[in-house]
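Here is one chain, start to finish.
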Amino acid sequence: MYIRFVSPVRLDSCRGHCGIFQSAIDIVYDNDTPEHIYLPLRELLDWFNTNLPKPQESVFSMRSCRKYIEVGICWFRDDAREMIRNAQVMAAILKECDIQIVQIATRNPGQLLYRDDYQIVAKPCSTTPVAWH
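Its structure:
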């Protein structure tokens, strides 16, 4: 099973529905974010930056008709319990900013593009849930 955290909000910084990290980054870089929100979000983002491997940008793209298109989305592996717990804490903090984050799961994330001990990147297939509706 694979787990993803998404927001139903469409932001300019996202190609579609935002994942939890983009939502958190947008709040952290908003000058109007109160300190009691900013500090724990910043701490969680720093924790993920230290503990979650970052796939190379090329992992998210595939070549099509002589150009690269971004197709990959990230999913936590269901055995990455500490990662998932911290993402749930991040979701609760974002909810205080009126950003709802929904946890979705699938057994079929699509074509595997990358894998490590905590996550995968996959090109979704037609039956993969990629957003909250």
